[in-house]
Amino acid sequence: MGAEALLRWNHPQRGLLTPAAFLDVLSHKPSAAEVGEWILNTALRQAAEWRVAVPGFRMGVNLFEAQFRSGRLMSTVRRALAESGLPPDALELEIVETILLQTDPATIRLLHDLRALGVGLAFDDYGTGFASLSLLKRYPVSRLKIDRSFLRNVNDAPQDAAIVKAVLFLGRAFGMSVIAEGVEDERQMAFLRENGCDEAQGYLFGRPMPAREFAARFILCDTPPGDCGPELRERARIGA
To answer: What's residue 133's pLDDT?
Structure first.
């Protein structure tokens, strides 16, 4: 179905760093908007390559709050789509609660303009913060992302199961798609199937990996993703 673009830092002394090591600091730096634009352009160029082999492939890209304040997000998205040759529905922008809690007219108008363009808007980590249900009426969100914290014990904790079912119900009632994050085992996947969840992502399908490895495992492989073994992956890399 698609992938989510994740940011890592190949630090010259400390090696590969995950977002927990630097993202909070980066998000408050003057360069945050520029970094966000680089991520968007890089992710869409990659998605355009993969979409040749997998029609309908969708790329999810997280946004910094600074990109909303920059005043150039709309033009950046238009330019990135045009340069990559992708249709707008190939891009899904992931938005956190702190952005949606901004009720200023400019933010609301920008989100509506992005949806009018055809770009998807996903409410990330839904249910973990302070957002009220009225946000689902006010903003043109097209997808809800169920946070991994509710999936971890969904088969054993009735409260978590109830929350996941409630988000699925809300998604259907509002005409939104729903994707579950952090799916790690078949029991969780079976629960989601039984309750009609549209899509899922998580370690069950693959841990975060470089684009080259992702392509070998999911894009260039001629068999279903779960059946791609090391030999097929290596052969796909050599063939590329």
So the answer is: 77
